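Field: COMPLEX_INPUT
Field: COMPONENT_COUNT = two
Field: RESIDUE_TOTAL = 320
Field: MODE = joint
Values follow.
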Amino acid sequence: MTSYRRQTELIEIHPSRRITAPNLPNGAFMYRTLVLAALAGMVAAGPALAAGASCSTAPKSQFKPKATLEAQLTGEGLTVRQIKVEKGCYEVYAVDKAGKKVNLAYNAETLEKLDNAEAGEN
Amino acid sequence: MPKPAKTDRNVSAAADAQPSPEMVRVWDRVVRSFHWALVLSFVTAWLTSHSSEDIHHWAGFAAAGLVAMRLLWGVLGTPYARFSQFVRDPATVLRYLLALLSGREARYIGHNPAGGAMVVVLIAAMGSTALTGWLMTTDAYFGVSWVEAAHSLAAHGLLVLVLFHIGGVALASFRHRENLVRAMITGRKRAAEPADIA
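Field: COMPLEX_OUTPUT
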């Protein structure tokens, strides 16, 4: 772990070494490191965080029946027109009570709703 | 055109050299830009049909707009752009196709009868594909199976037509010794010879 000496002290100890980092006071140096670590963490975790639930990777025998999902959605007031299977997801084509189209995607195994309705296609 | 023999080089150009063929303007800027923009939107739509929905929709709307523009231009445009110039009755088209089979078809400066028929069918297919595609985005027809099936059928039919169109262009280019693809870029073709139909 880097010594949190002030930049000016480091120059005196190693005068031959070129300091390329900006001349920051102690607190700012620590803050910068924390920000970088947080960003790195976010980049690594990003894809997982963005998707929320995702499509099933299990074989079709593990899927819940389409009828179960349809009944659930009808109960919620939707008119289900089609349910397609797309790579481990059920893609729902429906209209709501107001007649507006609704496009949803559900994990075919757990019937968990996905944030992105186009998840199965890309 | 065959190159003059080496010994002819010293003789005056007027007497012995082959004159370059006279070129005439056939396809105007509207026709040419419409054609290639439509090619681009068709290819884009095809490549994004199961992936990027937004780009697919954009390409479909672009194609529909282009077709609408061409329909207008077919009435108001330059001579060779007008439907009245190149859309011929079925009997003429059939006669042309039979002549094609025996290698005796004439060279046309504008669209030949088969080409004219192809334009009509392509516009109809392109229009149907765009229309059914658009219907799929409406509340009334979203997720309705027969609309999806119609869209798929129209799109695949269109692909078959496009392949025939490319084949026809290649055949005519070969038969009449001209580059018709380049003609659709520059707009110019070799002027009519006595047997050609201007």
